[in-house]
Amino acid sequence: MVLYLGLQNLGAVARGISWLLGILSPLLIGFGIAFVLNVPLTALEERIFPLLPWRENRLFLKIRRPLAIALSLLFTVGLLLLLILLILPQLRTSLLSLAQVLPAYLEDLRDFSVSFLGRWGVSPRFLERLTLDEARLEELLAALFSQGEDSSLAGAVGGAVNLAGTLVHGFVNLVFGFTFALYMLCSKESLSYQTKKILLAVLPEAVVERIFSLSALSYQVCSRFVAGQCTEALIIGALCYLGMLLLGFPYAPTISALVSFTALIPVVGAFLGTAVGVLLIFMESPSQAFWFVVFIILLQQMEGDWIYPRVVGKSIGLPSLWVLAAITIGGSIGGVLGMLLGVPFCSILYCLMREAINGKLREKISSPEE
């Protein structure tokens, strides 16, 4: 009955889910931040700190967890700032150069269009309609503000208030989410213990053990996916840098860092950095910008068909064919987010199916047929 009512009132269900996600957004943001920071934190606590000579010191044992959190946060924020400092200055310079040469490019494009249309006997008069002279600009502005100054001013003020409210709400959610993430990381063992106690109080022990087993499997797969995704991004960034150096493209460090960062989005992420790379190179040479696009397409084809399935698929124990299927289906369902979450979700299903199938086969082998 509940399912039937939900299907008959999908709009209300969608609004309810949106309302619930809005309330839980700080917790969800905090969980995401905690999960990302927990990857370097676990590496520090399990691999780096045991090698230190003062690992048994009483003071070090007290500050061990806060120190690991601080180093993980410093590493993550420092990496993001490094990418921003590499990309923004070159992007600003290219935009300023584009603003200076754009009128000349548009004039050349108009002359080429007139010449091309003249060869085919087509009148180029319609190009004059595309010319935005001062009189036509005044007409457009008059039409835009035809409702009166008061309504336009009210609309502008209302839009500014809505924008300010959205920014403040997002900033507050980010602050609360970051605070929740710090609390989760500082007391993750006690949170796990308390959650298990609550579940044992209301559910059978076998069900609780199954839930924790599934949670451990999900965390293991997702953490390996993040590590494999970062490894794959470094590989494609290095290949992009070497290829750009060999082919003589400008801005090789900046564009390679951007391509490496956007490659964190599976398979199609590198194309997001290509647009900025084309803009930067176009200021130097339009022909090189074209060949850069060809180079990125070939590199992305090699990355999507060979590097990504083997690096990420091997890290999470998922065959290459399943990785490509997960990306394709996830992208069709949820776009970029579906592509990002499809691989770990498919890996979890693959592990559960493998466990169930192997268990059934063991039962058949151990019990002879009657």
Q: Explain this structure to me?
A:
- The protein has helices at residues 2-8, 10-48, 58-119, 126-130, 134-144, 149-186, 188-202, 205-247, 252-262, 269-284, 286-316, 320-366.
- With 370 residues, it is an all-alpha fold.
- Helix 3 (58-119) crosses helix 10 (269-284), helix 10 runs antiparallel to helix 11 and helix 11 runs parallel beside helix 12.
- The radius of gyration is 28 Å and the shape is globular.
Short précis:
The chain is mainly α. It has 12 helices and no strands. Helix content is 88%, strand content 0%.
Order of helices and strands: HHHHHHHHHHHH
Main structural class: mainly alpha
Specify the helix fraction band.
over 70%
Strands, count: 0
Largest sheet: none
End-to-end Cα distance, whole Å, is 43 Å
Return the average pLDDT rounded to an integer.
75
Low-confidence stretches: 147-151
Shape: globular
Count of discrete alpha- or pi-helical segments spanning 4 or more residues: 12
Integer-rounded radius of gyration: 28 Å
Strand content: under 5%
